[in-house]
């Protein structure tokens, strides 16, 4: 009997990373998404291509699927052995009521608090957090897309799970102790998520399309490397992550951001700037974390300033930011979104950064 997997969110992580990770004959894959056009294509083709990066080359593989469901379809949830949630940290709560009868739910939502949220809303206690230690694009190069418009590019990353008997059947995942699991999470959240987002906002200012293009800019690269140093040093000082693991993770991320094979769109990484600037999210928490260092976190402050400037007409949160500027000063906006009071020196420190030097 094949292990039946249902993946909510047929985007970068869902269709790209998880699709590739569980593409063996042991598994039967199905997807759910709100994009009707995508669902129709997947149902028509019953396969798509993933280009996995190994040794600086693409390894292309066809991924076969059983079904693709539209989000409003009636889905036989109880038939699946495991359900992955990859729809977004805010959007996952909208599908929680659909998961009440699920045998097992794994949240890939880049927010560890989603586990308790899904449990509460669904009434299902079989919910676990997992860490996709990977960069996956939601698109591919024009050459690859010409052959298959559904192609996605992904790294050959790891799916990190905490050791638990209920998760033992997922042989392709890496199971670790609670202590190591949390070090992975802190490193992913701070060393990866925060600089990745800041790189996108800085790249958007220069009108780059992809993350690797922004990283080629010497001034931007210097800021991102500086922000990673600020974050990594603070993680070590606060004993949240060991020096060995944090240093290893930082170097890995720098290589990832520069990988031209990924075709990671800035629009994907930069999306939802209000959420990413919220008090308990990546950028602001990294800013506060870095205050544990002896030097002020100038590079992260530049990232905050760049995030406040982000605009994409297709991104509702960035349009909201732009509208706020009609009636509020930047210091007032930072207070409203990030909870950093106007009287807090940190507010002026961030908003007074000069982006014209980039």
In short:
The protein has 358 residues and is of the alpha/beta class. The chain has helices at residues 12-21, 36-45, 92-95, 114-122, 142-147, 178-205, 211-216, 218-237, 243-257, 266-270, 273-276, 282-289, 298-309, 316-324, 330-338, 345-351, and strands spanning 3-8, 27-33, 47-54, 57-64, 67-70, 82-85, 105-107, 127-129, 131-133, 152-155, 158-162, 174-176.
Helix/strand order: EHEHEEEEHEHEEHEEEHHHHHHHHHHH
Q: Summarize the main sheet.
A: 6 strands, parallel
* Overall form: globular
Helix content: 40-55%
Tell me, rounded to a whole number, the average pLDDT. Answer: 96
- Classify the secondary structure makeup into a structural class: alpha/beta
Uncertain runs are: none
How many beta strands in the DSSP annotation? Answer: 12
Percentage of β-strand residues: 15-25%
What's the number of helices?
16
Strand order of the largest sheet: 5-2-1-6-7-8
What is the terminal-to-terminal distance? 56 Å
Computed over alpha carbons, the radius of gyration is 20 Å
Task: Give a description of the structure.
The chain is of the alpha/beta class and 358 residues long. 45% of the residues lie in helices and 16% in strands. It is built from 16 helices and 12 strands. The strands form 3 sheets. Strands 5-2-1-6-7-8 form a 6-stranded parallel beta sheet, sandwiched between helices. Strands 4-3-10 form a 3-stranded mixed beta sheet. A 3-stranded mixed beta sheet has the order 9-11-12. The longest helix is centred in the middle third of the chain and has 28 residues, at 178-205.
């Amino acid at each position: 009997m094949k292990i039946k997997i249902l993946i909510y969110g047929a985007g970068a992580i869902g269709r790209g990373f998880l699709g590739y990770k569980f593409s063996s004959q042991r598994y039967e894959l199905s997807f759910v998404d709100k994009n009707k056009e995508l669902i129709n294509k997947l149902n028509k083709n019953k396969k798509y291509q993933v280009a996995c990066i190994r040794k600086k080359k693409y390894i292309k593989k066809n991924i076969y699927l059983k079904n693709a469901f539209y989000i409003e379809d009636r889905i036989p949830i109880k038939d699946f052995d495991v359900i992955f949630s990859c729809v977004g940290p805010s959007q996952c709560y909208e599908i929680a009521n659909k998961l009440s009868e699920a045998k097992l739910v794994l949240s890939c939502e880049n927010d560890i608090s989603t586990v308790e949220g899904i449990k509460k809303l669904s009434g299902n206690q079989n919910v676990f957090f997992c860490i996709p230690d990977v960069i996956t694009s939601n698109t591919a190069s024009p050459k690859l897309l010409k052959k298959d418009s559904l192609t996605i590019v992904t790294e050959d990353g790891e799916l990190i799970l905490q050791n638990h008997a209920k998760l033992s059947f997922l042989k392709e995942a890496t199971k670790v102790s609670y202590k190591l699991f949390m070090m992975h999470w802190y490193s992913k959240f701070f060393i990866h998520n925060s600089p990745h987002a800041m790189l996108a906002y800085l790249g958007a200012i220069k009108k780059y399309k992809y993350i690797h293009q922004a990283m080629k800019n010497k001034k931007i690269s210097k800021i991102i490397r500086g922000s990673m140093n600020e974050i990594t040093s603070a993680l070590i000082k606060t004993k949240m992550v060991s020096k060995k693991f944090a240093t290893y993770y930082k170097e890995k991320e720098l290589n990832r951001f520069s990988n031209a094979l990924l075709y990671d769109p800035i629009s994907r990484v930069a999306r939802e700037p209000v959420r990413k600037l919220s008090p308990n999210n990546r950028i602001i928490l990294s800013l506060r974390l870095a205050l544990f260092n002896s030097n002020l976190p100038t590079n992260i402050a530049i990232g905050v300033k760049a995030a406040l400037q982000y605009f994409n007409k297709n991104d509702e949160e960035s349009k909201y930011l732009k509208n706020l500027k009609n009636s509020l000063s930047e210091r007032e906006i930072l207070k409203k979104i990030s909870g950093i009071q106007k009287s807090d020196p940190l507010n002026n420190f961030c908003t007074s950064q000069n982006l014209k030097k980039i």
